[in-house]
Amino acid sequence: MPNLKVKIASAEFKNPIVMASGTFGFGREYGEIYDIEKLGGISTKGLTIKKRDGNNGIRIWETPSGIMNSVGLENPGIEGFIKNELENLKKLDVTTIVNVGGATLQEYVDAVNLISKEDVDMIELNISCPNVKAGGMAFGIKEESARNIVRVIRNITSLPLVVKLSPNAEDIVRIAQVCEEEGADGVSLVNTFKAMAIDINNRKNVFENTYAGLSGPAIKPIALRMVHEVSKNVSIPVMGMGGITTWKDAIEFIMAGATCIQIGTANFMNPSAGIEILEGIKSYMDKEGIKDLSEIRGII
Question: Is 129 known to be catalytic?
Fold first, then answer.
């Protein structure tokens, strides 16, 4: 059997298949479809210090080869997660990644302080969230703000820390390097692309917030390029994502340098995508005589 195990800091994954934040909930629903304990890891729905109801109006809009979303980080809050969801996740034989967001630096700090007291495997710091004290600009757009938040969070938690990067950053390679410089154990990329949809019949924008996040197969070639660029310029592990729907896509991201890959929009297209991609990777490795993923990681 080929070795699919990977490791980021002290977090071990039985295989590189991770379910992306915001597309898998906390695993309960998908667990009714297939054995999710066969997966490598689950990144929780994005959590904030306080419960959020999310955005009003249309939240999901289908596009050619993808979707746009404006969910608005609807979530039960850190305390609600700990009370109602964490125990169930801990029972699963999967690596648990807690995705954390916030509107201010203090909200991130409070959330990470709470979750760091719990038995979780990793924190995924989502710096694509809009910083309300900076006019709504995402924390991860500029080098200075990205450096500051990673430095602060690194200093308050000993848990493995992966920083989720925005493709809308001024220079995503430099942002990744800053994360490494400030002690991040890895980076995950890419998050959704800033996009827009217009309802020509009603002559108005589809989303109440005007702009939304584009994900799905349409972004894959750009996401793959960004993962490749970042992987060549940092020494910490990269979790690659962006439009992965097949095992072939996953292999491409690994060849581009990704240690793990995250499956997102594909879960909405095909609820069994995770397990099918995993089986496809195994079959490919068997066919090609690949004993360990390290043999093909970053070969491009």
Answer: yes
